[in-house]
Amino acid sequence: MEIETAQVMTIRLKKEPLWKRMWKERWLYILMLPGVAFFAIYKYVPMWGVLMAFQRYQPHLGVMGSEWVGLRHFERFFSEPQFWTLLRNTLYIAILDTGVFFPLTIILALMLNELRSEIYKRTVQTLVYVPHFLSWVVVVGISYILLTTEGGIINELLALIGMEKVQFLMSEFWFRPLIILQMIWKDAGWGTIIFLAALAGVNPSLYEAARIDGANRWRLLWHITLPSIRSVVVILLILRLGNFIDLGFEQIFLMLNAMNREVGEVFDTYVYQVGMQQGQFSYSAAVGLFKAVVGLILVVSANWLAKRLGEEGIY
To answer: Which InterPro entries does the record match to this protein (predicted)?
Structure first.
């Protein structure tokens, strides 16, 4: 009877004109307006600038008046010898980010969830959240204070115990590990928030039933906790793949120098170099569009694969 009533209501709603339905839910639409306005102004309107990637853009002519050159900038980008170096460096750091940083946020969330003392748990959470609010300038500055060969704390300790000082900041070998360690220290705690929220929604009766059956904490983790947050993990991983080669500009730019540029130059810093420093606006727009297309392909592919494996996906 309830199902039939719901079906009748659905049919009636469909028969009503759209404007009537919108008027009935007008306060919800009004509540939604700020979010829609934000995305329209800052996400969709700027997409008009994508046209620059297919033009020889001249600021005094504007987007509509600049000469159309088609795919010439993309042909140049893919034929540049530097392209393969940029791709290798970007993929290397992106794989470390996805393979090390992302799982670590899950592990940290699981560890925090296992703490029984609320006071201790809140204290630890606060300590791991705080670095997120520091800018990359501060984080890199701390790294310099710790690692520089001239008065750096770590190198001074190495010298104190009779070891040679290590040029961490100038070394190609240490560049990528330092990037990942900085990411972990700054954002791993902040990344646990959504996972902790998902863990809070796990039904406690499942744990109680498992304990009655003799399950230990590892069994509870493996058979209840992880399956309960699996859908959240999949969705966040898919969304993260959208920014797979978008590593961010500020951190890597601040860590770059003449000695580690060969392994540190990525697409983000390259766009700044050719776009802002050299004024090649159309060419840098083409590089940025290439990054966006790769991210879109990864998201669509990962979502399709997730659905094939029985997960919900993001759409």
So the answer is: MetI-like (IPR000515), MetI-like_sf (IPR035906)
List the CATH code of the domain at 82-137+183-308: 1.10.3720.10
Q: What are the sequence ranges of the domains in the chain?
A: 82-137+183-308
- Per-residue pLDDT band for 234 (boundaries 50, 70, 90) equals very high
pLDDT tens per residue across span 187-227: 999 989 999 888 888 888 888 888 888 888 888 888 888 88
As a three-state string, the secondary structure of the chain is: CHHHHHHHHHHHHHHCCHHHHHHHCHHHHHHHHHHHHHHHHHHHHHHHHHHHHHEECCCCCHHHHCEECCCHHHHHHHHCCHHHHHHHHHHHHHHHHHHHHHHHHHHHHHHHHHCCCHHHHHHHHHHHHHHHHCCHHHHHHHHHHHHCCCCCHHHHHHHHCCCCCCCCCCCHHHHHHHHHHHHHHHHCCHHHHHHHHHHHCCCHHHHHHHHHCCCCHHHHHHHHHHHHHHHHHHHHHHHHHCCCCCCCCHHHHHHCCCCCHHHHCCHHHHHHHHHHHCCCHHHHHHHHHHHHHHHHHHHHHHHHHHHHCCCCCCC
Q: What is the pLDDT of residue 114?
A: 85
pLDDT of residue 313: 80
Q: Tell whether the model's pLDDT for residue 15 goes beyond 80.
A: no
